[in-house]
Design brief:
Layout (H helix, E strand, L loop, with lengths): L6 E5 L4 H12 L3 E6 L2 H11 L2 E4 L5 H15 L4 E4 L10 E3 L6 E3 L2 H26 L11 E6 L3 H4 L5 H20 L5 E8 L5 H4 L3 H9 L10 H13 L7 E4 L9
Parallel strand pairs: 1-2, 1-4, 2-3, 4-7, 7-8, 8-9
Antiparallel strand pairs: 5-6
Family: Belongs to the short-chain dehydrogenases/reductases (SDR) family.
InterPro entries: NAD(P)-bd_dom_sf (IPR036291), Sc_DH/Rdtase_CS (IPR020904), SDR_fam (IPR002347)
Keywords: Oxidoreductase
């Protein structure tokens, strides 16, 4: 699929992996709509790349519907969807207070929020985007569209405190092939990337010694991944017509330790 001239939606496109992917798509001539809750950052990226910003809460049908309607009014029906929206707060399943020895379990509201944003939000955007893609005529390649999701190595190597996050990302991995099969008759491909430790705003907010330690734990190259490296793979999954139903780690060969 040649992205030049095609319309694309990037969720979580105001920062990190999503922003890098939005820039990479625009650099190749795609018309890009950025879905995000961060209005200031989203509008700034949209101005930078000549795209459009659409405020979107992926946990809400109404908000997501409005964002897709706004994007399609501005740049047309998208053939490309990149799902990068996600959150990752951590808490142990059961923990003991150091002060008084009291026991508490994982806050269920937080568990549900992570699942709703990361897993259900990803599926919501896939379903709504694909429903629009099927209305399009196939391209010369025979394709109608292509979708890339963002999981995490935590789907396979979840660390202490990542039960909810790992469950949400494991769900994305688990649904990739079934969705690709659901959409095979409509000529829409679906793939998922499992990033390792990347230079996202969350990571870059940590102390430098922690960042250095995390980078040193990567077999090679011994550093955090860079968002443009994620974007490179996302674009390849869009452009290579034989990639479908795959879950691909992008992690410098790291296998996460328990902590």
């Amino acid at each position: 699929m040649d992205v030049n001239g095609l319309s694309a939606v990037v969720t979580g496109g105001a920062s990190g992996l999503g922003a890098a992917t939005a820039r990479a798509l625009a650099a190749k001539g795609a018309k890009v709509a950025i879905f995000d809750l961060n209005v200031e950052a989203g509008e700034a990226i949209a101005r930078e790349i000549g795209g459009v910003y659409c405020e979107a809460n992926v946990t809400s049908d109404d908000s997501t519907d409005a964002a897709f309607a706004s994007a399609r009014a501005a740049i047309g029906q998208e053939r490309i969807l990149i799902n990068c929206a996600g959150i990752g707060p951590a808490a142990k399943t059961v923990s003991r207070s150091r002060e008084d020895g009291s026991i508490k379990h994982y806050p269920m509201a937080q568990f549900n929020t992570i699942i709703q944003v990361n897993l259900v939000g990803t599926f919501r955007c896939i379903a709504k985007s694909a429903a629009g893609m099927v209305t399009l005529d196939p391209l010369e390649s025979g394709e109608r569209g292509a979708i890339v999701n963002t999981a995490s190595v935590a789907a396979e190597d979840g660390q202490v405190g990542q039960a909810a996050y790992s469950a949400s990302k494991g769900g994305i991995v688990g649904m990739t092939l079934p969705i690709a099969r659901d959409l095979m008759g409509e000529a829409i491909r679906v793939n998922t990337i499992l990033p390792g430790i990347f230079e996202t705003p969350l990571m870059l907010g940590m102390p430098q010694n922690v960042i250095d330690s995390l980078g040193a734990s990567v077999p090679f190259p011994k550093r955090l991944g860079k968002p443009p490296e994620y974007a490179m793979l996302a674009l390849h999954l869009i452009e290579n017509p034989y990639f479908n139903g795959e879950d691909i780690r992008l992690d410098g060969a790291i296998r996460m330790a328990p902590r």
